Amino acid sequence: MRLSLLNIFRKKRRSTIEFDEIFLDASNLPSFNTGRLEGRLALPLSRASIIGVGIAFILIALVFLGQAFRLQIVHGEEFRERSENNRLDTSLVIAPRGVIYDRRGELLAWNTEDADISDFSARAYTDRRGLGQLLGHVSYPKKDSSGVYFRTEYEGISGIESAYNGQLAGENGEQLIEIDATQEVISHHVAHPSRAGEPLTLSIDAEFSEALHDALATTSEEYDFRSGAGVVMDVHTGEVIALANFPSYNPGLLAKGTDAEAIHALTQDERLPFLNRIVSGLYTPGSIVKPFMAYAALAEKIIDPSKQILSTGSIVIPNLYNPSNPSVFNDWRAHGLVDMRRAIAVSSNVYFYTIGGGYGGQAGLGISRINDYMHRFGFGEPVHTPLAEGKAGTVPNPEWKEETFGEEWRLGDTYFTSIGQFGFQVTPLQMLRAYGAIANGGTMLTPHFIQGEPSSSYDLRLDPAYLAVIREGMRQSATDGTARSLNRGDIHIAAKTGTAQIGANNEFINSWAVGYFPYENPKYVFVTLLEHGPRTNLFGSAPTMSRVINWLAHNRPEYLGDIQ
């Protein structure tokens, strides 16, 4: 009985389902749709199946967790940066370069748009002639083959662009560029703004300089000179007012660098169009050293300025080693009796041979004192400017000759040095400041090219009485001497010309004209030079300055003072 009751409540464990358990009694579920059970057979899930499904879920979860660990922990920083880079990029903002003006506010170098350049401005330059060497040019920022900048700034290559590159360059900036998955730019955001370079105002009058260039070109073409240069400086401030080289070039041609044929032609031009002759040229001075020789003779009391010396066209020095072959030192013509003022005016070689080396009972300075005074006036000493390290040039002396030629010094060497020949070499800037000292009373100014910039200077302590003699001789040169093409009624000019023989056989000449104006109250000193003309040329550089003075009278009379 007890067993029967237990059997009633105990579920029988079995693996089969009885037929009558599948089909329910319809009478018990009158509303049940028996059609829904058609074709269905339900079996219970086995433990192995459940375990298999669980293991599969666990394995899948482990794979996902492992991949998440790799992405977020192992390579998380790498993928974060890659994702960020796909969204934001940085771009260099190249600073605009400072513009350059002349003293009157005319633009000489500026920035402009160029269809061939997208990331920065092109550099443009004035079309005024003769200023290429002074302004110089720039090299643009450069990219490598992958598009990355390896030079991130404009680089001044020569001239003002190089000398004042730090002021003109400015400071680059940076911007963030937002891009989408297709690398299309969405927006720009400036992270660090660029700072434009500072403007620069030169002391140069560009139109005046162009007129100087054109005068050099015209005179060169008329008298068959190959090239030339000129410069004008304020004798009180040292500001260079005009500067020109002939031939010249447009700096924009080199900055862009796309016209290879034109650039090649410039590099092959024997006239050296890239050379800034005023700053870097070295030349034999010839007779333009004579005023300094005259001052030395007066200061050393070698001769009274009124004493006359006879020029018959040459002096003859006996040859101790070969009496039948004496040494002859020629004048460029027979001048007759000349005193110091007249000797400067007509540029008598015989007079300066005599006061330099001595002759016919007249004592000379000798090469030692000649060297002392030439160095005192700045020859043999470099003129340093921001444009270039100055060249010292050469004042010949016995030590120099021994080192250069392995020969001892002779009297004839002193004679030739006295007239600016032999191995004498000067730069136009040296001549400019030395003649500036004659004009302003003895102050040696260092020429400079920036408006308002102070000039370094020192006082030569020159004797006013001796200076007066030199000035009077230079004035006579313009009124009735070798520079008489500068004799004008409206403006009084003091000048000195010089001719230096060059070439293997002295077949060519360089021609100088130097001086200052107005004569009575000097304001400006000038130096002009024409190179490589025929030896037979009777016309020198003075006509160049005559053309310039004509231009000033019509276009810049303020430079001439109270013209009459």
Explain this structure to me?
- With 564 residues, this protein is of the alpha+beta class.
- The chain folds into 2 domains: 90-201, Penicillin-binding protein 2a (Domain 2) (Alpha-Beta Complex); 206-560, DD-peptidase/beta-lactamase superfamily (Beta-lactamase), CATH 3.40.710.10.
- The strands form 8 sheets. The chain has a 5-stranded antiparallel sheet with strand order 13-12-22-21-20, with helices on both faces.
- Helix 14 (349-357) crosses helix 17.
- The longest helix is centred in the first third of the chain and has 28 residues, at 47-74.
- It is elongated.
- The N and C termini lie far apart (159 Å).
- Mean pLDDT is 85; it is low at 19-28.
CATH H level, superfamily name of the largest domain: DD-peptidase/beta-lactamase superfamily
Shape: elongated
CATH topology of the largest domain: Beta-lactamase
Mean pLDDT: 85
The whole-angstrom Rg is 45 Å
End-to-end Cα distance, whole Å, is: 159 Å
Q: Any idea of the CATH class of the largest domain? A: Alpha Beta
Q: Largest sheet, order of strands side by side?
A: 13-12-22-21-20
**Beta-strand share of residues:** 15-25%
Q: Residue share in helices? A: 25-40%
**What structural class should be given to the helix and strand makeup?**
alpha+beta
Largest sheet: 5 strands, antiparallel
Whole-number count of domains:
2
Care to count the β-strands?
22
CATH architecture of the largest domain: 3-Layer(aba) Sandwich
The total count of helices amounts to 20
Low-pLDDT regions: 19-28
Specify the oligomeric state: single chain
